[in-house]
Write a structure and sequence with these properties.
218 residues, Rossmann fold, 2 domains, 7 helices, 55% helix, globular, disordered C terminus
C-alpha cells in the first residue's frame, strides 16, 4: 500500500500546498510515508485535473489517495462526480480524507470480510454525502458572488478581479526569453491558462508596437 497525497487550490492566487503540513502531521501520527505529492491549481468544480488523473494513473489497487478534505477532490456536479468516483473504484484506490474519520480505517485494513465490506459501504455513503455538500457550498458561493457583483455594478463600485501584476510581468519576461509553458509552470507555479492569458496580451502589445512603428512618420 502506497500513500499518494493530493493538494488542490481553486486559483493561482491561492496556495495549493497550504495543507501539506497538516497531511504530513497526519501521516507521521499514523506512521505512514507519503510516496508522492500531487499539486495543482484548478477549480474543484472542473473534471479537467491533470495532476489528479496522473495520480490515479500511477496508483495501483489498494493504494491510498490522501486529501485534507473531500472538497479537494470534488466540488463536481453529479455526473462528473460519478465519473471520477468510477475511475477511483476501477483502480481500486481508496480515498482517505482528514475530514472523514471512517476513511482512516483504510490505513489499517481489517481482516474480517464482513467488517471490511461494512466499512467500505459506510465510507462510500459518507463520501457521496460530503461530495454533495461540497457541490452545494460551491453553488451557494457562486450565487452569493454573482449577487455581490450585481450589487457592486449597480453601485458603480465593481472593478473586476485584481491582477497579480508581478506574476504577469515575470511570465511576460519568461515568454520573451523563449521559455515554454511547461517551463514557466515549473518556475512560477501558475496554471497554463494564466500563461495563455499573458501571452495573448503580450502578442497584442507587440502587434500594437509594430503597428505604431509602421505608421510613425519618418
Amino acid at each position: 500500500m502506497r500513500i499518494y497525497a493530493y493538494l488542490r487550490a481553486s486559483t493561482d492566487e491561492q496556495d495549493a500546498s497550504r495543507a501539506k503540513g497538516e497531511l504530513e502531521e497526519f501521516a507521521k501520527k499514523n506512521e505512514l510515508k507519503v510516496s508522492s505529492w500531487f499539486t495543482e491549481n484548478v477549480s474543484g468544480a472542473s473534471l479537467q485535473r491533470p495532476e489528479l488523473f496522473r495520480l490515479l494513473d500511477i496508483a495501483e489497487k489498494g493504494d491510498i489517495l490522501l486529501v485534507e478534505q473531500v472538497d479537494r477532490i470534488s466540488r463536481l456536479k453529479t455526473a462528473d462526480w460519478e465519473a471520477l468516483k468510477n475511475e477511483i473504484t476501477l483502480k481500486g484506490v481508496r480515498v482517505v480524507s482528514l475530514d472523514l474519520p471512517t476513511s482512516h480505517q483504510f490505513l489499517n485494513p481489517v481482516k474480517d470480510d464482513f467488517t471490511a465490506r461494512m466499512v467500505e459501504a459506510l465510507n462510500a455513503m459518507l463520501l457521496d454525502m460530503l461530495a454533495a455538500v461540497a457541490r452545494k457550498d460551491y453553488e451557494a458561493n457562486r450565487k452569493r458572488q454573482a449577487q455581490g457583483i450585481k450589487q457592486a455594478k449597480k453601485d458603480g463600485k465593481y472593478k473586476g478581479r485584481s491582477v497579480d501584476v508581478r506574476l504577469h510581468e515575470t511570465i511576460r519576461k519568461l515568454l520573451l526569453s523563449g521559455n515554454s509553458y511547461t517551463n514557466i509552470v515549473k518556475i512560477v507555479g501558475c496554471s497554463k491558462s494564466t500563461i495563455s492569458a499573458v501571452n495573448k496580451d503580450l502578442k497584442k502589445s507587440l502587434k500594437d508596437d509594430l503597428k505604431a512603428v509602421y505608421l510613425a512618420p519618418f
